[in-house]
Amino acid sequence: MPAGIPSADFKAESSSMTVFATHPYDNMTTKHRIIQVGSLAGSPSANKNLADRYDVVELWKFPDRKAALAEHGKGITAVVTSANFGANAELINALPDLKAICSWGVGYETIDVEAAHKRGVQVSNTPDVLTDCVADLAWGLLIAGARRMGQGERFVRAGQWGQVHGSIPLGLRVSGKKLGIVGLGRIGEAIAKRGTGFDMEVRYHNRRKRDDIDYGYEASLVDLAKWADFLIVATVGGPSTRHLVNQPVLEALGPKGIIVNIARGPVIDETALVAALEAGKLGCAALDVFEHEPKVPEALTKSDNAVVLPHIGSATLETRLAMENLMLENLQAYFDTGRVITPVE
Ligand code: 8YV
């Protein structure tokens, strides 16, 4: 069946289709059938917009995914997913007519891009639109960790202010310190830019030195950690960066050092992180992501030297809407032109 042509039973269903007067897709007379791998509940209106515009096979609602793919996969040319749900080779290869995978989010380590490209399937993500919010959160985490904001808040909420002798322990100054960035991509760069506003010297570690940028480059991550007061992790996820931040790196950062992670949990060896914190060899960990989300080690949830957030780097109304729109634009561009707008190369 050619790309985008609905199946016979789809035509019967589409007769009850709603047409929206102000909708950009007004002239659609039939809805394309797509597979949505998981519910995009973290987006303001992605589930609704997908359901309004397309004939959606909601894969997560089927108890037997393999059987669902076998039954509904034929003729499906586009899949919607996110980093959370991914698209592995099994899913890709179960869809003989697949042409495009449109993901909601920038990270795509759970999508088998190689398997997709081998089959000529385009993959799109949502870069740029979340850069500022993720960078903002990295700074929020850093300041929260250095100034013990979580601990202070718990102290006030517990009614301890004025009740017990003293206050919370002293924090660390943020302004004017040395900032190391692990992974100077789009998000790393936005974090670095904010660092100059805090009068910080910024250096970074990447696989390769960037010639288009003036920040100092450290070829060795351990050397960067030794130099830095604070280390912010902003790399891609996946096998190439798994446990890049390990025991030697954490110990090089040291007892007053703060590690921030807004990238992917597995970039840090979490067992080594907990051990370093417990032994006082690392000052503080301020984390938005974890190795086995949504599981967070109790050693971290109980520690006043840790700040823990539930993976909310992009979770603002504006950014989640922008991610949603870009994902929808990619999907519709594929149906209209055969090409997604922001392809993963
Ligand atoms: C999302 C993210 O929460 O874009 C990413 O890679 O990590 C976040 O913006 C995630 O995509 C949800 O699966």
Automatic annotation (TrEMBL):
Domain D-isomer specific 2-hydroxyacid dehydrogenase catalytic per the UniProt entry, residue ranges: 45-344
Entry keywords, A to Z: NAD, Oxidoreductase
Domain of life: Bacteria
Key word Nucleotidyltransferase present: no
InterPro entries per record: D-isomer_2-hydroxyacid_DH, D-isomer_2_OHA_DH_cat_dom, D-isomer_DH_CS1, D-isomer_DH_NAD-bd, NAD(P)-bd_dom_sf
Domain D-isomer specific 2-hydroxyacid dehydrogenase NAD-binding: from-to ranges: 140-313
Keyword Transcription regulation appears in the UniProt entry: no
Family: Belongs to the D-isomer specific 2-hydroxyacid dehydrogenase family.
Name recorded for this polypeptide: Lactate dehydrogenase-like 2-hydroxyacid dehydrogenase
Biological source species: Achromobacter marplatensis
